[in-house]
Design a protein that fits this description.
Layout (H helix, E strand, L loop, with lengths): L1 H28 L10 E12 L2 E4 L2 E5 L2 E2 L6 H11 L5 E11 L2 E8 L2 E2 H7 L4 E2 L10
Protein backbone atom coordinates (compact mmCIF):
# COMPACT_ATOMS: atom_id res chain seq x y z
CA UNK A 1 0.00 0.00 0.00
CA UNK A 2 2.85 2.37 0.84
CA UNK A 3 4.48 1.73 -2.54
CA UNK A 4 1.26 2.53 -4.39
CA UNK A 5 1.04 5.84 -2.54
CA UNK A 6 4.67 6.67 -3.43
CA UNK A 7 4.05 5.81 -7.09
CA UNK A 8 0.92 7.98 -7.20
CA UNK A 9 2.77 10.93 -5.64
CA UNK A 10 5.69 10.49 -8.06
CA UNK A 11 3.35 10.38 -11.07
CA UNK A 12 1.58 13.50 -9.79
CA UNK A 13 4.88 15.39 -9.53
CA UNK A 14 5.91 14.30 -13.01
CA UNK A 15 2.55 15.43 -14.43
CA UNK A 16 2.78 18.76 -12.58
CA UNK A 17 6.27 19.46 -13.96
CA UNK A 18 5.18 18.48 -17.46
CA UNK A 19 2.17 20.82 -17.37
CA UNK A 20 4.27 23.63 -15.88
CA UNK A 21 6.95 23.29 -18.58
CA UNK A 22 4.26 23.13 -21.27
CA UNK A 23 2.66 26.37 -20.04
CA UNK A 24 6.02 28.12 -19.69
CA UNK A 25 6.95 26.99 -23.20
CA UNK A 26 3.69 28.47 -24.48
CA UNK A 27 4.53 31.82 -22.89
CA UNK A 28 8.09 31.69 -24.17
CA UNK A 29 6.74 31.12 -27.69
CA UNK A 30 5.02 34.50 -27.33
CA UNK A 31 8.29 36.08 -26.16
CA UNK A 32 7.13 36.31 -22.55
CA UNK A 33 9.29 35.16 -19.69
CA UNK A 34 7.16 34.12 -16.72
CA UNK A 35 8.33 35.54 -13.39
CA UNK A 36 9.13 32.79 -10.90
CA UNK A 37 7.20 34.71 -8.22
CA UNK A 38 3.91 34.30 -10.09
CA UNK A 39 1.44 32.33 -8.00
CA UNK A 40 -0.32 31.33 -11.20
CA UNK A 41 -0.63 32.44 -14.79
CA UNK A 42 -3.91 33.36 -16.44
CA UNK A 43 -3.89 33.11 -20.23
CA UNK A 44 -6.72 33.84 -22.60
CA UNK A 45 -8.82 36.32 -24.47
CA UNK A 46 -9.70 39.69 -22.97
CA UNK A 47 -13.48 39.41 -22.76
CA UNK A 48 -14.28 42.78 -21.18
CA UNK A 49 -12.54 46.07 -20.33
CA UNK A 50 -13.85 47.69 -17.15
CA UNK A 51 -11.51 50.69 -17.10
CA UNK A 52 -7.90 51.64 -17.74
CA UNK A 53 -6.44 49.34 -15.08
CA UNK A 54 -8.94 46.47 -14.95
CA UNK A 55 -10.00 44.03 -17.63
CA UNK A 56 -11.34 40.50 -17.73
CA UNK A 57 -9.50 37.52 -19.14
CA UNK A 58 -11.81 34.60 -19.79
CA UNK A 59 -14.35 36.46 -17.64
CA UNK A 60 -11.93 36.67 -14.68
CA UNK A 61 -11.44 40.30 -13.54
CA UNK A 62 -7.76 41.27 -13.37
CA UNK A 63 -6.51 44.43 -11.64
CA UNK A 64 -3.23 45.44 -13.27
CA UNK A 65 -0.51 45.60 -10.63
CA UNK A 66 1.36 48.89 -10.18
CA UNK A 67 -0.90 50.80 -12.58
CA UNK A 68 -2.97 53.80 -11.51
CA UNK A 69 -5.46 55.16 -14.02
CA UNK A 70 -8.02 57.94 -13.59
CA UNK A 71 -11.52 56.82 -12.62
CA UNK A 72 -14.17 56.37 -15.29
CA UNK A 73 -16.17 59.20 -13.72
CA UNK A 74 -13.59 61.65 -15.13
CA UNK A 75 -12.94 62.57 -18.76
CA UNK A 76 -9.32 61.37 -18.42
CA UNK A 77 -10.60 58.03 -17.11
CA UNK A 78 -12.98 57.66 -20.03
CA UNK A 79 -10.10 58.31 -22.44
CA UNK A 80 -7.96 55.65 -20.71
CA UNK A 81 -10.86 53.18 -20.85
CA UNK A 82 -11.45 53.86 -24.55
CA UNK A 83 -7.77 53.24 -25.26
CA UNK A 84 -7.80 49.99 -23.25
CA UNK A 85 -10.89 48.77 -25.11
CA UNK A 86 -8.84 48.34 -28.28
CA UNK A 87 -7.36 45.25 -26.59
CA UNK A 88 -10.70 43.47 -26.16
CA UNK A 89 -10.53 40.15 -28.01
CA UNK A 90 -6.72 40.07 -27.85
CA UNK A 91 -4.71 37.36 -26.12
CA UNK A 92 -3.33 38.20 -22.67
CA UNK A 93 -0.89 36.50 -20.33
CA UNK A 94 -1.26 37.64 -16.72
CA UNK A 95 1.26 36.68 -14.05
CA UNK A 96 -0.84 36.71 -10.90
CA UNK A 97 0.73 37.96 -7.67
CA UNK A 98 -1.63 36.11 -5.34
CA UNK A 99 -3.24 39.35 -4.14
CA UNK A 100 -6.93 40.12 -4.54
CA UNK A 101 -8.73 43.44 -4.41
CA UNK A 102 -12.49 43.58 -4.32
CA UNK A 103 -13.64 40.95 -6.83
CA UNK A 104 -10.39 41.01 -8.84
CA UNK A 105 -7.15 39.07 -8.95
CA UNK A 106 -4.02 41.20 -9.24
CA UNK A 107 -1.34 40.64 -11.84
CA UNK A 108 1.15 41.92 -14.35
CA UNK A 109 -0.27 41.40 -17.84
CA UNK A 110 1.14 41.30 -21.34
CA UNK A 111 -1.01 41.53 -24.41
CA UNK A 112 0.45 39.96 -27.52
CA UNK A 113 3.88 40.15 -25.91
CA UNK A 114 3.67 43.80 -24.80
CA UNK A 115 3.48 44.91 -21.17
CA UNK A 116 0.02 46.45 -20.73
CA UNK A 117 0.97 48.80 -17.87
CA UNK A 118 3.95 50.06 -19.85
CA UNK A 119 1.70 50.78 -22.85
CA UNK A 120 -0.75 52.76 -20.71
CA UNK A 121 2.03 54.83 -19.14
CA UNK A 122 3.87 55.41 -22.44
CA UNK A 123 0.63 56.77 -23.90
CA UNK A 124 0.31 59.13 -20.91
CA UNK A 125 -3.06 57.68 -19.91
CA UNK A 126 -2.05 56.30 -16.51
CA UNK A 127 0.91 56.34 -14.15
CA UNK A 128 2.89 53.74 -12.29
CA UNK A 129 1.96 53.25 -8.64
CA UNK A 130 5.22 52.20 -6.92
CA UNK A 131 3.43 51.30 -3.67
CA UNK A 132 1.70 48.42 -5.48
CA UNK A 133 4.61 47.38 -7.68
CA UNK A 134 5.19 44.29 -5.55
CA UNK A 135 7.82 42.85 -7.89
CA UNK A 136 9.59 46.18 -8.51
CA UNK A 137 9.16 45.94 -12.27
CA UNK A 138 8.85 49.66 -12.86
Amino acid sequence: MRYIFIIIVALGLIAFNYIKSFNEGDAEALGIEIDSRAVSVLRGTITHVRDGDTFEVKETPVRISALDCPENSTSAGQIATRFAKQFKGKQAVCELTGAKTYDRVVGYCSIEGKDFAQLMVENKLCKFWPKYDVWNRY
